[in-house]
Amino acid sequence: MSSVPFDTHAAVKRLTEAGVTEAQAEALIRAITESNARADLVTKADLRDAISALEIRLIKFMVVQTIAIIGLTVTLIQLLG
């Protein structure tokens, strides 16, 4: 999984401009950064890859299921007809 860029300097600057002390702002941004580093964040590319893999699995399942149904139908017609 790829990481999401986060400008910590700009965030600290915005917080200090809003009246938060620099030490508090740095501690808050450090906590947010550490939290994001440990989180399993998903990007759009990750979602696209997962959806593509699921679509392929679903198509394979449907093809096998269709072949099985056709085979059973032909067998039943031969047995009963």
**Which range best describes the helical content: under 10%, 10-25%, 25-40%, 40-55%, 55-70% or over 70%?**
over 70%
Mean pLDDT: 90
Secondary-structure class = mainly alpha
Per DSSP, the total helix count is 3
Sheet with the most strands, sense and barrel status: none
Q: How far is it from the N-terminal to the C-terminal residue, by CA?
A: 57 Å
Which of globular, elongated, flat, extended, rod-shaped describes the shape?
Answer: rod-shaped
Number of strands: 0
Enumerate the spans where pLDDT stays under 50 for 5 or more consecutive residues. none
Strand content: under 5%
When the domains are counted, the total is: 2
- Following the backbone from N to C, one meets helices and strands in this order, namely HHH
Using the CA coordinates, give the radius of gyration.
Answer: 27 Å
Would you summarize the structure shown here?
With 81 residues, the chain is mostly helical. It has helices spanning 8-17, 22-38, 44-80. The protein is built from 3 helices and no strands.
Detailed description of the structure:
The protein has three helices and no strands. With 81 residues, the chain is mostly helical. It has two domains: 1-41; 43-81. It is rod-shaped, with a radius of gyration of 27 Å. The model has no long low-confidence stretch (mean pLDDT 90).
Question: Which keywords apply here?
Answer:
single chain; 0% strand; 2 domains; mainly alpha; 3 helices; 81 residues
